[in-house]
């Protein structure tokens, strides 16, 4: 589970005689909060803007605003240049933004007709605005969103076209190999057991660990195995940012001895094997004490190979659709929906836990589904008119067509169901997993990917069947998110998550990890800021989806479809009368 690994300082012991299992990038939870999935460049064009100038056309500028996570306040992100005398500007200045699949980034584009040199926007004529999310732009066909400009009552304000392009540096990985010579001897009875620790520098001058090599035993001249790391993790795409490398002598008790350190940068490393990439390992304490101190050995770069990876956005841009299905637990253990203590309580003033989880996840995923039609299922209830128990019923009451329009349509169908069905039991997951798996099995060409959100209050009754269903589904283009609501123990759900031990059924292991579980109670904000706590919930449950998606595509050898040709604005030809 990306972002929920051990803190960077903790070592796990591996199987081979207490050697530490050297952490990979995914083990450091600091990374999940600080590295954007990628960076995208937004280009803005407008057509048929309002004309506010009497003797000439408007002189437009575009101003972009963003909202911080869980915050309603709009902050200015940047401005384009001013283009004189046009109603159809194609702005040259781009906006470069961090893009996270798992976060909802609200955007507001404001347009003004500039009348003077004043940077104060209130001094210029307002031409209208457009609201959207970054996901909406990226999820549109060809990552190109066209929307009407609004904001001036009774006026047609024209349209805006925003295109998102992923920046190339964010998808590169580097394969590097290092060796060292004449490192300081740190062990009393043998030589040192050296390993390297890489840190990237942050904006504030602090350092974040991003890679550890393996330990090479009993040598002062180690050759480490080549390792692969993304350029984002190594330097956040900034080629001149300092990279600090520390050299340690491994000790069984975890009190590793510091041998020394050196600094470099991506740009220096990219020169490859050369005299520029032989580094003196310096121990500042020794240097301060001993006059004749030269160094504590040298580290040499042996190879440096750049690999460009295909990204999640390549597939989205090529037209892959993400289909979202919801399954809601209607078992009796949730409590009577008419009672305030019930997890399904229909409070007219506030969403219940089911509604909050559904909205938090659904509002982000819906940007990647072009028709915004979502199947919504329930399980564990008795249905009218005959009271039969169903573990796979349509919330809208139409088994032939369980689709609801948008997240609002799903919420409406959920509330309607609460009024018509009887909460019962048991808690069976397998039928809804198999329901989505049937659809996923019919499109394995990479054009569609399925995400099932199960919201449940607890203890699962069909564990063996559910494991079997998950193992089968791990071969299909689908992921499963489980949100546990209420106070129950969710030990069984942790087992399904498969982060610690890969899930298996009757001796067969899942091909990929496709389940992500989170308990809703971990996200309840005591201060009552539900907006922020639900943004955190969505971030944690959706963070693994792009990697699960890519793992399916890689295993199947599916390449992204080519994106549709880029949009070229129509050229306005002046027609002359003959």
Walk me through what this model shows:
The protein has 578 residues and is α+β, with helices and mostly antiparallel strands. It folds into three domains: 38-167, Sandwich (Immunoglobulin-like), CATH 2.60.40.150; 172-308, Immunoglobulin-like (Sandwich), CATH 2.60.40; 322-556, von Willebrand factor, type A domain (Rossmann fold), CATH 3.40.50. Helices cover 20% and strands 30% of the residues. The chain is built from 13 helices and 30 strands. The chain is globular. The model is unreliable at 1-34 and 573-578 (pLDDT under 50).
If you average the pLDDT, what whole number results? Answer: 87
CATH architecture assignment name of the largest domain: 3-Layer(aba) Sandwich
**Estimated share of beta-strand residues:** 25-35%
Helix content: 10-25%
Number of helices: 13
**Main beta-sheet strand count, sense and barrel state:** 7 strands, mixed
The named CATH superfamily of the largest domain: von Willebrand factor, type A domain
> What is the gyration radius calculated from CA atoms?
28 Å
Distance between the termini: 70 Å
Total number of domains: 3
DSSP summary, beta strand count: 30
CATH structural class of the largest domain:
Alpha Beta
- CATH fold naming of the largest domain: Rossmann fold
Weakly predicted, low-confidence segments: 1-34, 573-578
Class based on secondary structure composition and strand pairing: alpha+beta
């Amino acid at each position: 589970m990306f972002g929920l690994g051990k803190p960077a300082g903790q070592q796990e012991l591996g199987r081979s005689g207490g050697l530490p299992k050297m952490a990979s990038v995914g083990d450091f939870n600091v990374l999940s909060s600080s590295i954007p999935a990628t960076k995208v460049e937004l280009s803005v064009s407008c057509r048929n803007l309002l004309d506010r100038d009497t003797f000439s056309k408007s002189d437009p500028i575009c101003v972009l605003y963003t909202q911080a996570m869980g915050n309603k306040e709009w902050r200015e992100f940047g401005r384009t240049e001013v283009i004189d005398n046009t109603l159809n500007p194609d702005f040259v200045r781009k906006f470069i933004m961090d893009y996270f699949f798992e976060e909802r980034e609200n955007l507001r584009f404001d347009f003004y007709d500039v009348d003077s040199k004043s940077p104060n926007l209130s001094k210029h004529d307002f031409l209208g605005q457009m609201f959207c999310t970054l996901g909406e732009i990226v999820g549109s066909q060809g990552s190109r969103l066209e929307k009407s400009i609004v904001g001036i009552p009774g006026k047609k304000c024209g349209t805006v076209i925003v295109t998102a392009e992923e920046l190339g540096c964010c998808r590169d990985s580097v394969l590097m190999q290092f060796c060292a010579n004449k490192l300081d001897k740190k062990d009393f009875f043998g030589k040192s057991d050296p390993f390297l620790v890489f840190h990237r520098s942050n904006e504030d001058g602090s350092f974040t660990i991003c890679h550890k090599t393996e330990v090479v035993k009993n040598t002062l001249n180690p050759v480490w195995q080549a390792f692969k790391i993304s350029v984002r993790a190594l330097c956040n795409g900034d080629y001149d940012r300092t990279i600090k490398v520390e050299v340690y002598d491994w000790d069984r008790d975890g009190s590793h001895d510091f041998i020394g350190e050196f600094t470099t940068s991506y740009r220096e490393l990219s020169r490859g094997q050369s005299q520029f990439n032989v580094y003196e390992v310096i121990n500042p304490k020794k240097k301060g004490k001993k006059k004749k101190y030269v160094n504590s050995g040298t580290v040499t770069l042996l190879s440096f190979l750049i690999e460009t990876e295909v990204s999640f956005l390549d597939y989205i841009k090529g037209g892959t659709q993400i289909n979202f299905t919801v399954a809601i637990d209607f078992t009796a253990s949730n409590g009577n929906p008419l009672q305030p203590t019930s997890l399904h309580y229909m409070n007219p003033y506030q969403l219940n836990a089911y509604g909050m989880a559904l909205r938090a996840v659904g509002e982000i995923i819906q940007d990647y589904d072009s028709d915004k039609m979502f199947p919504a299922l329930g399980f564990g209830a008795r249905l009218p008119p005959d009271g039969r128990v169903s573990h796979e019923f349509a919330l809208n009451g139409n088994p032939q067509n369980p689709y609801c329009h948008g997240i609002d349509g799903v919420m409406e169908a959920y509330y309607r169901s609460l009024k018509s069905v009887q909460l019962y039991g048991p808690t069976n997951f397998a039928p809804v997993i198999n329901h989505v798996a049937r659809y996923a099995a019919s499109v394995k060409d990479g054009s569609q990917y399925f995400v099932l959100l199960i919201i449940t209050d607890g203890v699962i009754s069909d564990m063996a069947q559910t494991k079997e269903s998950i193992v089968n589904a791990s071969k299909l283009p689908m992921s499963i998110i489980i949100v546990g609501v209420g106070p129950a123990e969710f030990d069984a759900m942790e087992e399904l998550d498969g982060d610690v031990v890969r899930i298996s059924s009757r001796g067969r292991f899942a091909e990929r990890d496709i389940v992500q579980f989170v308990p809703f109670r971990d996200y309840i904000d005591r201060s009552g800021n539900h907006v922020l706590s639900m943004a955190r919930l969505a971030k944690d449950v959706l963070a693994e989806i792009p990697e699960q998606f890519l793992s399916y595509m890689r295993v199947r050898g599916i390449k992204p479809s080519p994106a549709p040709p880029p949009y070229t604005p129509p050229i306005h030809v002046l027609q002359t009368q003959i």
